[in-house]
Amino acid sequence: MRMSMENSHNILIIRFSSIGDVLLATPLIRILREKFPDASIDFIVRREYAELLQHNPYISHLIVFDSSEGFEGLRKLKNELKHASYDIVLDIHNSIRSRYLRKCLRVPVRTIHKRILQRFLLIHFKWNFYNGIVPVAERYLEAASFLEIENDGKGLDIFIPQEIIARVEARLRENLKNRNFVIGICPTARHKTKEWLPDRFIALALRLHKDTNAAFLVFGGIEDRDYCSAIVDRINAECNDTAAINYAGRFSLLETASAMERCAIVVTNDSGLMHVAAAMKRKIVAIFGSTVEEFGFFPYGTRAIVVEQKEVRCRPCSHIGKEACPKKHFRCMNEITVDEVYNACKTLLSETY
Predict the structure, then answer these.
(1) Distance in angstroms (rounded) separating the CA atoms of residues 111 and 14
(2) Which H or E run includes 12?
(3) Most buried by CB count within 10 Å: which residue of 145, 163, 328, 348?
(4) pTM as predicted
(5) How would you classify residue 115: left for phi > 0, otherwise alpha for psi between -120 and 50, otherwise beta?
(6) How far apart are CA 161 and CA 167, in angstroms?
């Protein structure tokens, strides 16, 4: 960790997790680097998400926190930070852990404005007191507004080493054979109320395959492998083809991002992989159920169509999703039809081809 430099800034950014939140921080990192080219810009992130920032050229030092070490690991990190010399701390997580860490840093701390009261009122009473919709990436910029930075409009960043790109390309060539038209599908999310129905992903793929003879790359985490495999098997069985390939749990985050480069569009739930697709500047059809735009997590910095049921009055029921619909009817997803998502896909595809 670097010590202070004359006429410069030594900046620490704290954002432990998760996939989307970390990627949404990349405009802040880039804009700070452009404003302060000689600054030391350090970033604290949890180990499982460090891959997303590992090759980011705008970061001076990536500080990785292993959450499996629990409080002892956090205390160790805090002791290490005591010996650093920062001019500014940007806590864009503003959690119990991050507040504990920053207590040892006797420098100005700026935090994200999470709009917690507005969020609470919208979820529990359906009272909308949001003063306009501010994407999370721009809320992070708000935390550093005192530095007189401006949004450059370049969206999210993800940096992939050439060896990963080459490895993924070789695997895709082998698996795709001669198929050049590819659509990405991300059918999972961390919470079930953010997942569109698997039968509808299958029906959508079959219609798109009939129209375009597309291949489908299905993405997810290792915990999603069986779920995605069932979707892939159904698509292939019903179209009598090997059109779909399951990469859930078989690609790392950076490998997934590299594979998305091949996709004409990506159809996704509100999930971390949606933000990976946005960072890759893919055209996105995003399906939103229990969450809404006011929370700031819609696709950022890329062409996207969001499909949602705005008329469902119990939306939103959560800002991160739930394991089951509190009302038992799951109307927010059940009422999103294959036709709606298909038409959104056709719109984006017509803009490209």
Answers:
(1) 9
(2) strand 10-14
(3) 348
(4) 0.95
(5) left
(6) 10
